[in-house]
Design goal:
The chain is α/β, with parallel strands linked by helices. The chain has six helices and 15 strands. Strands 11-10-9-12-13-14-15 form a seven-stranded mixed beta sheet, with helices on both faces.
């Protein structure tokens, strides 16, 4: 979904499948001239929206907008942030080149998947998930709370944000298939038994990492388990996170999650 200054774009298609776009009624100043500043917000749903973004940026600049910023909480293609074989296409690199070519005044993102994204995007502004997680802590209560980070990377990114005891996971992965087979817990494991646990990470697909995390935490005596994810794909509904009975509630943002579920609370990114 793409908005201009919080107003939704009208997106239709011609019979050949090409886009027919209409922007919302543009706010004017007292002299009737179009304002020179605008913000495009992109809550990712599909790659096709990149074409919409290109057309809209061109349209706005043609109508006098000079200060044009992009609010893009989720960075598409962020998972493809490296190449391992000659056959791999470095999609993140080429996506970033397109965004840079559009020459936005700033590009604001939320909790990027890796530092590669930050390095490739010009004039990037990174928004941390700290304020959002504090909202989660307000919901579930800080008393008897331990943070849990599913891997060492998450532990390095997030543990300094909160003055709370924490532990982290070490994944047992099948490197041929990428499938997670299990997980061990390291760190302050004595702060797990009989405590409330908040698992935190940046992105989830089906949620296998969090299922195995919750299962191990329960084995160690965790009392209640909650999960915060900055970017939650709709495919979480196909995994075991919401059906295993181990996780009380999932908290996420509307950066890419568009579904509804009674055990998922969605924070409006804006």
């Amino acid at each position: 979904m793409i908005r201009i200054n919080e107003n939704d774009i009208i997106v239709n298609k011609f019979p050949d499948g090409t886009l027919l776009l209409k922007e919302p009624v543009w706010e004017t100043d007292g002299g009737g001239e179009a304002k020179r500043k605008a913000k495009i917000t992109w809550l990712f749903e599909s790659n096709e929206e990149l074409v919409t973004l290109i057309y809209l940026a061109g349209h706005l600049r043609a109508h006098g907008i000079r200060d044009l910023s992009l609010d893009m909480p989720y960075i598409p293609n962020a998972r493809q942030d490296r190449v391992k074989t000659k056959e791999d296409v470095f999609t993140l690199k080429y996506f970033a080149q397109v965004i840079n070519w559009l020459d936005f005044t700033s590009v604001t993102v939320l909790d990027p998947h890796s530092s590669v994204s930050e390095a490739l995007l010009d004039r990037i502004r990174v928004r941390t998930p700290e304020a959002l997680v504090k909202r989660v802590i307000d919901r579930i209560g800080m008393e008897n709370l331990t943070m849990f980070y599913p891997d060492e990377g998450a532990c390095k990114r997030y543990s300094g944000m909160f003055r709370l005891p924490y532990a982290f996971g070490i994944k047992n992965r099948d490197w041929e298939t990428g499938e997670i087979r299990g997980l061990t817990v390291s760190g302050m494991t004595d702060c797990v038994k009989d405590r409330k646990i908040l698992i935190m990470d940046d992105i989830s697909s089906r949620g296998g990492t969090f299922y195995f995390s919750a299962r191990k935490l329960k084995e160690l005596g965790a009392k209640e388990i909650y999960l915060y994810i900055s970017h939650c794909e709709n495919t979480i509904l196909e995994g075991e996170v919401l059906t295993c009975g181990l996780i009380e509630k999932v908290f996420t943002t509307n950066s890419i999650f568009t579904k509804k579920h009674e055990r998922v609370e969605v924070f409006d990114y804006a």
